[in-house]
Amino acid sequence: MAQPLDPTKFNLALLSLGGLLFFYALLSRFFKQQLYLSAPMFALVLGIFWGPVFHLFDLHAWGTQELILEELARLAIAVQLISTALHLESAYPFKHWRSLAIIIGPLMLSMWAISSLLVYVILNVDPWVAILIGAVLTPTDPVLASTIVTGKFAEKHLPDRVRHLLAAESGLNDGLAYPFVFLPLLMVIPSYSDPIAHWFSVIWLWDVGAAIVFGLVLGYFAGKLLKWSQRKKMMDKQSFLVYMVAVSFVALGGVKLIGSDGILAVFMAGVGFDLVVKGSERSEEENVQDALDLMTTTTMFALFGLALPWQDWLSLGWQGLLLVIAILLLRRLPVFLLLNRFIPHTKGYLDALFMGWFGPIGVAAIFYANLAAHKTGLHEVWSVVSLVILGSVIIHGISAVPLSIFYQQNISDQTNSKLPVKKRNSGIGNRE
């Protein structure tokens, strides 16, 4: 049974989290460019020290671990998705739908199939459990992707076409992973008499379809209302800076209340907002979104470090380590190389190698794994997925800076792509 939170522990948590943010913000460029240590990696390491090493905090004492991680991950994804949409050029998904159709179609389906097959073969679990774990591991994470594609370092070393396509993919496939996860969920949960019919009629038509429509409409009218308020001089600067944060929360909570996919709705709300509010008008919004993004990212990965199931990993044995290596190498890169010729937005094999490698697994997988665990009681889902997430955070985090430098030095097209470049204000949100 959950115990009341000790006020002393609460103050210690505030001190620890504040110290984490303070220390990383103070030395962020040094950590990222000299030590190759991103904010998620830094927070993860500290979370491990706070929990398994020194036993300062225990998530189980605060409530049900699955629900805590699921809801906080949902919030972190929402903040990052709206930030991702703001960083893209206006109407990006509509202008580059051909490239995105390949990436969220054949590529995403292949990633699901390959991940499921690897889990089934290496861990020898029930086929539907393997398909469920494979679905959880499918989406590329917008939180980890943002550490690769945003900030001055990324703008200097990577062309816009690479940064924007990776960002848009991570924004879209987080929400579109929802039906992938729910197909095996419906097959595992015995209460559904006709799971396939429910999957098509409810999950696809309502949960996904309604989320796209409601998100776009909400974002579009939020942009219209913002412009009306500014035209009438009814909004001050402070309110402007939190406006899109409020829109993301309305989309996340409101769409979820009607039983639809809140995560997909948040990203589509950002896309709808972009159709109305142009880049020069929303530069201030980006800064406050980036600052909030850093706070939610570090908090989420610190809690992830607290929740790592070390004993479960030991029971997986060498097969667990083999699965991590196989997923990181085979889940995405080979298929991206094969599909590269059909993606109009990429130029040459270096684009394909870089984007094929950087498909990080992070907060989205935390969300879906805990959602699956509490709905099915299959705790092995969290054991397997958390190990792969840890491997992705470490490997993709360490390789981001050197591979970005390698890409810049070897790409024949040294100049940036012709996509419109958004001028960024120098501020706390402009991560180095």
UniProtKB/TrEMBL annotation:
One GO molecular-function entry = sodium:proton antiporter activity
**What domain of life does the native source organism fall in?**
Bacteria
Keywords of the record: Membrane, Transmembrane, Transmembrane helix
Predominant place of localization: membrane
| Lipid bilayer topology | Multi-pass membrane protein
* Gene Ontology CC: plasma membrane
Tell where it localizes.
Answer: Membrane
Boundaries of every Cation/H+ exchanger transmembrane domain copy: 25-403
Q: Which PANTHER family match?
A: NA(+)/H(+) ANTIPORTER, SODIUM ION_PROTON EXCHANGER (EUROFUNG)
The identity of this protein, by name, is Sodium/hydrogen exchanger
